[in-house]
Amino acid sequence: MRLNKRLLATPLLIALVTSNVQAHGLWTEQRRGNVEVIYGHGAEDDAFRAEKVSGAWAYDGLGRMIPVTVERLVDHARLKPLKTPATLAVALDNGPWSQTADKQWINQGLQQVPAAIASIHTWKYSLAIYQPGAHLPELKRIRLAIVPEADPLEIGPGKPLPVRVLLDGKPAAGVELIGDYRGEPDAVSATTDAEGRAKVMVRNAGLNIIAAQVTLDRP
What we know:
Blueprint: E1 2-6, E2 13-16, E3 25-31, E4 34-41, E5 44-45, E6 53-59, E7 65-66, E8 68-72, E9 77-81, E10 87-99, E11 105-106, E12 118-129, E13 144-148, E14 160-167, E15 170-171, E16 176-178, E17 188-191, E18 197-201, E19 209-217
Parallel strand pairs: 1-12, 2-19
Antiparallel strand pairs: 1-19, 2-12, 3-4, 4-5, 4-9, 6-7, 6-10, 8-9, 10-11, 10-12, 13-14, 14-15, 14-18, 16-17, 16-19
């Protein structure tokens, strides 16, 4: 089994995505007055089973938790925090995936696909920052996180945003960052150094999604 993750960021949105199965990411957006959970690749987003959302957490500007409920709709999920959050996180367990001999991926484990030639289990996470000066809480529930080291809402387009990638709370070296996952989902902008740090150019005045992915082999 392998663990795959990919992260994203907006002004600042940071999400964790899964693997190379269907390089899809996870993030949140304001749509029709609601906070929608988005599962997609680049400018396109797809329907998904809402029960895959395994958790959601909202915080105020001081990092204090705000109650949030998950509305599970037919083809996606909607988050309903009790009040407007400064930061918002969501996790999605995308389940096991098995690859057949003809290179097709099926969202089932090896027991269901006995002729599979490869198998992985993928998780996706998203961390969105909505208010300037937001104090980030401990991110224990977000196994892979892109953490800004400057206020992302104070840095405009064309300027570098320093970030640090943490895997299980520890710096993750050699992680490639996609600086504009929505506009150029396959373009690597930077790679983290030995301390998990990198600088990513802010591309947009509005929504920015920074993505990263880590694969772990099963012990």
